[in-house]
Design a protein that fits this description.
Layout (H helix, E strand, L loop, with lengths): L3 E5 L3 H13 L3 E5 L2 H10 L4 E4 L8 H10 L8 E5 L4 H9 L4 E4 L4 H63 L5 H32 L7 E5 H9 L3 H7 L2 E5 L5 E5 H18 L5 E8 L3 E8 L6 H4 L22 H12 L4 E6 L3 E9 L3
Parallel strand pairs: 1-2, 1-3, 3-4, 4-5, 7-9
Antiparallel strand pairs: 6-8, 9-10, 10-12, 11-12
Helix pairs in contact: 2-3, 5-6, 7-9, 9-11
Length: about 375
């Protein structure tokens, strides 16, 4: 990366000497002959370091430094004073105002270059540390969000299982056969919800730590869909949903099988959750020139426009009950987004309130 230095001096000859030395070292140079020009330069440029003379007309170097350090946008730019003033008082004042170094004229070219390299290296390390701290903060926030999901939704699922189990144990003989079958159905549904959430959390955790395998291969889409849909036989039967699959023969993708099954499982489960009793779901597979496009279309409640952009973001996951009270967290959509990206695909959402939602994604063709 080419580093940019601003050289500030009211004597053009001094600027030329410094600029020639630094250009030979591979630095990009901007120049300013007075203090006010410095602020005009920083409006349109980012500088990695400023070489600043002190004795200048109108605004001296001390005033320029003070003003730069008071500005949040420029306060972190390293400033080296390059001046003929060598008294202790001047040097001390330069450091007190925020300068990182002080070089007196006439200067040694090798020393100037060495000092500049040192301070730019320090600045690079500082920027890298800031970047890593930001990543750590984001990771911490993500973990806190995941723990919140675990604490809320797994606790809810297991509380439901325990509650229904105790009721059946204590009052089984007092209920009719139909009532017991209904409670057993609720128990099964609650257990499946908890298990699905646990699967997603474990897979997401493994993907974040790099522990999940990525093994793309040529996959038969029809076989993958059949395998996935078999998981939802009872759920679709209970809500009396019609599922229509539109796919040509011999459609193949190049992707990781476990990841793609996870994507289908989450998106189909989501469609079932938000489709009302006796509604319909369409799964369309469309062959394009360079990819296979999938559309999972439900006739459900739809999504508010302002929430669509939040669907794949861990910081803004939200839980919405399904049309039959089904629970969820949104973690499945985040996992699907990451797995689609991992497999060189794209995913997006189209939705209209009261009419339904389409989750659309692409995968590379398996030629």
């Amino acid at each position: 990366m080419e580093r940019k230095i601003l050289v500030v001096d009211d004597v053009p000859k001094n600027i030329q000497v410094v600029a020639n030395i630094l250009k030979n070292e591979g630095y990009k140079i901007n120049v300013a002959t007075k203090g006010q020009t410095v602020f005009e330069n920083i409006q349109t440029n980012h500088f990695d370091l400023i070489l600043l003379d002190i004795m200048m007309p109108e605004m001296n170097g001390y005033d320029v430094c003070k003003k730069l350090k008071e500005n949040p946008k420029t306060k972190d730019i390293p400033i080296i004073f390059l001046t003929a003033r060598s008294d202790i008082e001047s040097i001390t004042k330069g450091f007190n105002l925020g300068g990182v170094d002080y070089i007196t004229k006439p200067f040694n070219a090798s020393e100037l270059v060495a000092r500049i390299k040192t301070h730019i290296t320090v600045q690079e390390q500082k920027e890298e540390l800031i970047k890593k701290n930001q990543q750590l903060e984001e990771l911490t926030a993500t973990k806190e969000k995941i723990f919140t999901i675990i604490g809320h939704d797994l606790k809810g699922a297991f509380s439901g299982i325990i509650g229904l189990g105790r009721m059946l144990k204590n009052y089984f003989s007092e209920h009719t056969k139909e009532e017991n079958e209904e409670y057993l159905g609720l128990l099964t549904q609650t257990a499946e919800t908890g298990f699905s959430l646990l699967q997603n959390l474990l897979q997401w955790s493994r993907s974040q730590t790099g522990a999940i395998n990525f093994d793309p291969e040529k996959l038969d889409v029809s076989a993958i869909l059949s395998e996935t849909l078999s998981l939802f036989h009872l759920a679709t039967q209970k809500k009396e949903l019609r599922i229509k699959i539109e796919i040509d023969n011999n459609i193949f993708v190049f992707a990781d099988k476990n990841m793609i099954i996870t994507v289908f499982r989450n998106l189909i489960s989501n469609a079932i959750k938000f489709t009302p009793q006796k509604g319909s779901i369409a799964i369309q597979v469309i062959e394009q020139s360079d990819a296979i496009e999938f559309r999972i279309i439900d006739s459900g409640v739809g999504i508010k426009p302002e929430k669509i952009d939040q669907l794949f973001k861990i910081k803004s996951t939200f839980s919405t009950l399904g049309t039959a009270g089904e629970q969820g967290t949104g973690i499945g959509l985040i996992l699907s987004y990451e797995f689609i990206q991992k497999n060189n695909g794209k995913i997006w959402v189209e939705s209209e309130l009261g009419k339904g939602t389409s989750f659309i994604f692409t995968l590379p063709k398996g030629n």
